[in-house]
Amino acid sequence: MNLKIGIVEDEQQISDGIRMLINGSEGFSCEHAFLNAELALAEIPRLDLDVVLMDIHLPGMSGIDCVGVLKPLCPNTQFVMFTSYEDTESVFKALKSGATGYLTKTTQPSKLLDALLDVHKGGSPMSSHIARKIVASFQTVPEKPELQKLSNRENEILELLSKGLRYKEIADTLFLSTETVRTHIRNIYEKLQVNSRTEAINKAYNR
């Protein structure tokens, strides 16, 4: 049984190329291709397609908005974005709208076919660098617990201390009085429960 694939792509040459690839590959068929979202909206709900490849930049309604309308109407159809857009915002908007995959147009033909099969089997295929962007967006560098005890100003002063600056140099850098710097440093020592510059730096930065 062939996977029934639909294409929404406004560049005729690209659309024809994908269609030729799909129809020339065993286990796939593509009988429906649309040049804009409006035509896709009118036809796709009645076609019972397995997977739709959707461009983002289309004349009129965008591919992302098109997926947002179609997905509730076609819950069993999987929508895979096939686009030149690689920014994180577009990726998240597409996934939020109902897309289950995101491929760039640089995807090799064999990998495109693998992705169509993968999404039909329950996967969420993505170009590798798109997947990396998504992972990176969720990753944050955890702040050292000792530094969380300090105010922003105290962290600034401690960082300058770690660079070897003297009290007056720190005061000049931060436009503070030397006495104010001394007060902040006393507070740093108290919060970190240390008695010297070296101990404070070692404890805060795990040296």
Question: What would your notes on this structure say?
Answer:
The protein has 207 residues and is of the alpha/beta class. It has two domains: 3-138, Response regulator (Rossmann fold); 145-205, Arc Repressor Mutant, subunit A, CATH 1.10.10.10. It is built from eleven helices and five strands; from the N terminus they run βαβαβαβαβααααααα. It has helices at residues 12-23, 37-43, 63-73, 88-97, 109-120, 128-138, 145-148, 152-162, 167-174, 178-192, 197-205; strands spanning 3-8, 28-34, 51-54, 78-83, 101-104. It has a five-stranded parallel beta sheet, with helices on both faces. α1 (12-23) links the parallel β1 and β2 (28-34). α2 runs parallel beside α3, α8 packs across α10 and α8 (152-162) packs across α11. It is rod-shaped.
Fill in the keyword field for this structure:
single chain, 207 residues, alpha/beta, Rossmann fold, Arc Repressor Mutant, subunit A, 2 domains, five-stranded parallel beta sheet, 11 helices, 5 strands, rod-shaped
Radius of gyration: 28 Å
CATH class of the largest domain: Alpha Beta
End-to-end C-alpha gap: 63 Å
CATH architecture of the largest domain: 3-Layer(aba) Sandwich
Helix content: 40-55%
CATH topology of the largest domain: Rossmann fold
What is the string of helix and strand elements?
EHEHEHEHEHHHHHHH
Count of alpha/pi helices: 11
Q: What would the principal axes of the Cα set say about the shape?
A: rod-shaped
* Poorly predicted parts: none
Annotated CATH homologous superfamily of the largest domain: Response regulator
User: Could you tell me the strand content as a percent range?
Assistant: 5-15%
